[in-house]
Amino acid sequence: MKKLYKPENEMELSLIKSIFESEGIHYFVLNDHFGSLHIGPQIDLYNARIFMVPEEQFTKAEELIAGYINNTREESSEPFKSQYSIAEKIRITVEGILFGWVVPRKRKRTHQSDGL
Questions:
Q1: Is 51 helix (H, G, I), strand (E, B) or coil?
Q2: Domain coordinates of the chain in residue numbers?
């Protein structure tokens, strides 16, 4: 078996598992259950989860992973827009420092609903 990919989080791990299962690719996830027990930095041989696939299926699995990564990167290619104004960010920071809580305000809608 060859190392193929190290998922960034649990959701990505589950998505790739389902992709491989639907395509009939045999895989093994190194540290699959043990890796979720230890929160913190992901160390490859200690708690990082790594997809391993048979050499015969490696190229197909690699193409599927590349397709998944390209699709997710295209969807999130827009830069993140700030939800809050500078004044709201200052208010949230001051409340957090002085009072120990963070309560963001509900944003006002910028568009009108269509008759609802």
A1: strand
A2: 2-75
